[in-house]
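Schema walk-through. Below, the input block comes first and the output block second. Nothing else is stored per chain. Lengths vary across the set, and this one has 137 residues.
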Amino acid sequence: MKKIIFMIFAFVFMVSHSGRIQAKTNEYPYLTFVTNEGATTLTVASLSIQVDGENLVVTNAEGVHTFVLEHLQKMYFSSSSSSVEDLNSTVKEKTEVYNLKGELVGTYANRAEAVNALETGIYVLKSKSGTIKIAIR
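--- output ---
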């Protein structure tokens, strides 16, 4: 926990003293926050990060996002989004679903069908186009 708080304060210090993030936004246009509940990817356009009590408040061009510091596991810049948009794929590919124990939960005609059939939990979806992790709430 101390390591995460130190990392956040160092990041906020860098942003507040430079006026902007020093990352090359054309190479890393996304910042991903991984919490106990899953991952959230945000664009770095107009990015501002503040610590408010026990929360990390992130403001960007899309809006305001709040993360509980205690639940934050890591954050990192990336060149691609890891958002839920991948689940809305219109590709009709056979999709295998596995639980966190690596056990096959089921095989479905496509990702959308798999997601609609799953109960609350964390799963790995595997198809020809790639493998993704999802959290169903």
